[in-house]
Amino acid sequence: MEKSFKGKVWKFGDDVDTDAIIPGKYLRTTDMKVFADHAMEGIDPDFAKNVKKGDMIVAGNNFGCGSSREQAPLALKHAGISCVIAKYFARIFFRNAINIGLLIIEADVDAKDGDSIEVDLEKGLVRVFPKENPQEARDSPAGAVPDFLLEILNDGGLVEHRKKQNASN
Question: What does the chain look like in DSSP terms, one character per residue?
Protein backbone atom coordinates (compact mmCIF):
# COMPACT_ATOMS: atom_id res chain seq x y z
CA MET A 1 0.00 0.00 0.00
CA GLU A 2 1.24 3.44 -0.85
CA LYS A 3 2.21 5.63 2.10
CA SER A 4 0.73 8.75 0.49
CA PHE A 5 -2.17 9.09 -1.92
CA LYS A 6 -4.62 11.67 -3.25
CA GLY A 7 -8.24 11.71 -4.29
CA LYS A 8 -11.49 13.63 -4.41
CA VAL A 9 -13.69 14.09 -1.34
CA TRP A 10 -17.17 12.68 -1.00
CA LYS A 11 -18.56 14.26 2.17
CA PHE A 12 -21.11 12.56 4.42
CA GLY A 13 -22.31 13.38 7.92
CA ASP A 14 -22.81 11.47 11.16
CA ASP A 15 -24.46 8.08 11.65
CA VAL A 16 -24.16 6.78 8.09
CA ASP A 17 -25.54 3.29 8.52
CA THR A 18 -24.81 0.16 6.54
CA ASP A 19 -28.26 0.23 4.91
CA ALA A 20 -27.42 3.65 3.43
CA ILE A 21 -24.03 2.33 2.25
CA ILE A 22 -25.58 -0.72 0.54
CA PRO A 23 -29.36 -1.10 0.80
CA GLY A 24 -30.61 -4.48 2.00
CA LYS A 25 -32.39 -5.30 -1.24
CA TYR A 26 -28.97 -5.89 -2.88
CA LEU A 27 -27.66 -8.34 -0.30
CA ARG A 28 -28.86 -11.50 -2.04
CA THR A 29 -26.01 -11.38 -4.51
CA THR A 30 -22.29 -11.95 -4.27
CA ASP A 31 -21.66 -9.89 -7.41
CA MET A 32 -19.25 -7.12 -6.47
CA LYS A 33 -20.36 -5.05 -9.47
CA VAL A 34 -23.90 -4.94 -8.05
CA PHE A 35 -22.52 -3.76 -4.72
CA ALA A 36 -20.38 -1.11 -6.46
CA ASP A 37 -23.29 0.03 -8.65
CA HIS A 38 -25.46 0.69 -5.58
CA ALA A 39 -22.87 2.00 -3.10
CA MET A 40 -24.17 4.90 -0.99
CA GLU A 41 -27.51 4.67 -2.80
CA GLY A 42 -29.39 5.20 0.46
CA ILE A 43 -27.92 8.73 0.77
CA ASP A 44 -26.78 9.73 -2.71
CA PRO A 45 -28.42 7.83 -5.60
CA ASP A 46 -25.85 9.30 -8.05
CA PHE A 47 -22.76 8.36 -6.02
CA ALA A 48 -22.00 5.12 -7.87
CA LYS A 49 -22.31 6.82 -11.27
CA ASN A 50 -19.90 9.61 -10.33
CA VAL A 51 -17.32 8.14 -7.96
CA LYS A 52 -13.88 7.57 -9.45
CA LYS A 53 -11.18 5.09 -8.49
CA GLY A 54 -9.07 6.62 -5.72
CA ASP A 55 -11.78 8.94 -4.37
CA MET A 56 -12.21 9.10 -0.60
CA ILE A 57 -15.14 9.44 1.75
CA VAL A 58 -14.91 11.94 4.60
CA ALA A 59 -17.59 11.51 7.25
CA GLY A 60 -18.52 12.42 10.78
CA ASN A 61 -19.17 10.23 13.79
CA ASN A 62 -20.33 6.64 13.81
CA PHE A 63 -19.73 5.80 10.15
CA GLY A 64 -20.91 2.28 9.32
CA CYS A 65 -23.36 1.89 12.20
CA GLY A 66 -26.31 -0.45 11.93
CA SER A 67 -25.95 -4.05 10.90
CA SER A 68 -22.83 -6.16 10.71
CA ARG A 69 -23.07 -6.61 6.94
CA GLU A 70 -19.67 -7.07 5.38
CA GLN A 71 -21.16 -5.98 2.07
CA ALA A 72 -21.00 -2.31 3.16
CA PRO A 73 -17.21 -1.92 3.01
CA LEU A 74 -17.13 -4.27 0.00
CA ALA A 75 -19.49 -1.93 -1.87
CA LEU A 76 -17.24 1.05 -1.15
CA LYS A 77 -14.05 -0.78 -2.06
CA HIS A 78 -15.45 -2.08 -5.34
CA ALA A 79 -16.90 1.34 -6.19
CA GLY A 80 -13.31 2.62 -6.17
CA ILE A 81 -13.08 4.28 -2.76
CA SER A 82 -9.45 4.13 -1.62
CA CYS A 83 -10.03 5.29 1.94
CA VAL A 84 -12.79 6.26 4.34
CA ILE A 85 -11.93 8.96 6.84
CA ALA A 86 -14.30 9.56 9.73
CA LYS A 87 -14.22 11.02 13.22
CA TYR A 88 -15.31 7.64 14.55
CA PHE A 89 -16.31 4.29 13.03
CA ALA A 90 -18.82 1.78 14.27
CA ARG A 91 -16.60 -1.03 15.56
CA ILE A 92 -18.08 -3.78 13.39
CA PHE A 93 -17.65 -1.64 10.25
CA PHE A 94 -14.06 -0.89 11.28
CA ARG A 95 -13.34 -4.59 11.62
CA ASN A 96 -15.13 -5.54 8.40
CA ALA A 97 -13.26 -2.85 6.44
CA ILE A 98 -9.88 -4.13 7.60
CA ASN A 99 -10.97 -7.72 6.96
CA ILE A 100 -11.75 -6.96 3.30
CA GLY A 101 -8.77 -4.64 2.76
CA LEU A 102 -10.39 -1.18 2.80
CA LEU A 103 -8.27 1.51 4.46
CA ILE A 104 -10.07 3.51 7.12
CA ILE A 105 -8.65 6.36 9.15
CA GLU A 106 -10.04 8.05 12.21
CA ALA A 107 -9.56 11.81 11.92
CA ASP A 108 -11.61 14.97 12.30
CA VAL A 109 -11.30 16.48 8.82
CA ASP A 110 -12.85 19.71 7.59
CA ALA A 111 -13.71 19.01 3.95
CA LYS A 112 -16.50 19.52 1.45
CA ASP A 113 -17.72 17.54 -1.54
CA GLY A 114 -15.34 17.96 -4.44
CA ASP A 115 -12.32 19.11 -2.41
CA SER A 116 -9.05 17.33 -3.12
CA ILE A 117 -7.54 15.34 -0.29
CA GLU A 118 -4.17 13.79 0.42
CA VAL A 119 -3.45 11.14 3.04
CA ASP A 120 0.10 10.66 4.29
CA LEU A 121 0.25 7.49 6.37
CA GLU A 122 3.88 8.01 7.42
CA LYS A 123 3.24 11.51 8.76
CA GLY A 124 -0.20 10.65 10.16
CA LEU A 125 -1.65 13.58 8.27
CA VAL A 126 -4.67 14.38 6.13
CA ARG A 127 -4.41 17.49 3.96
CA VAL A 128 -7.49 19.03 2.32
CA PHE A 129 -7.20 21.31 -0.70
CA PRO A 130 -10.47 23.29 -0.90
CA LYS A 131 -12.04 23.20 -4.34
CA GLU A 132 -12.60 26.97 -4.35
CA ASN A 133 -9.11 27.86 -3.07
CA PRO A 134 -6.63 24.93 -3.31
CA GLN A 135 -3.61 26.95 -2.17
CA GLU A 136 -5.22 27.29 1.29
CA ALA A 137 -4.69 23.66 2.25
CA ARG A 138 -5.78 22.54 5.73
CA ASP A 139 -4.01 19.82 7.68
CA SER A 140 -5.59 17.45 10.17
CA PRO A 141 -3.77 14.91 12.31
CA ALA A 142 -4.82 11.34 11.60
CA GLY A 143 -4.71 8.35 13.87
CA ALA A 144 -1.77 6.13 13.02
CA VAL A 145 -2.59 2.87 11.32
CA PRO A 146 -0.68 0.17 13.22
CA ASP A 147 1.87 -1.83 11.23
CA PHE A 148 -0.01 -5.11 11.70
CA LEU A 149 -3.16 -3.56 10.18
CA LEU A 150 -1.13 -2.13 7.28
CA GLU A 151 0.19 -5.65 6.63
CA ILE A 152 -3.39 -6.98 6.46
CA LEU A 153 -4.42 -4.12 4.16
CA ASN A 154 -1.35 -4.60 1.95
CA ASP A 155 -2.21 -8.27 1.56
CA GLY A 156 -5.76 -7.41 0.43
CA GLY A 157 -7.59 -8.25 3.65
CA LEU A 158 -7.52 -10.75 6.46
CA VAL A 159 -8.19 -13.92 4.42
CA GLU A 160 -5.38 -13.17 1.97
CA HIS A 161 -3.11 -12.16 4.85
CA ARG A 162 -3.69 -15.49 6.62
CA LYS A 163 -3.11 -17.40 3.37
CA LYS A 164 0.19 -15.59 2.95
CA GLN A 165 1.19 -16.34 6.55
CA ASN A 166 0.26 -20.02 6.19
CA ALA A 167 2.20 -20.32 2.94
CA SER A 168 5.36 -19.01 4.60
CA ASN A 169 5.12 -21.49 7.52
Answer: --SEEEEEEEE--S--BHHHHS-GGGTT---HHHHHHTTTTTT-TTHHHH--TT-EEEE-SSBTBS---THHHHHHHHHT--EEEES-B-HHHHHHHHHHT-EEEE------TT-EEEEETTTTEEEEE-TT-TTS-EEEE-----HHHHHHHHTTSHHHHHHHHHHH-
Tally of domains within the chain: 1
pLDDT in tens, 104-145: 999 999 999 999 999 999 899 999 999 999 999 999 999 888
Q: For position 29, which CATH number holds?
A: 3.20.19.10
The answer as to whether 162 is a domain residue is no
User: Which residue range is the domain that position 92 belongs to?
Assistant: 4-144
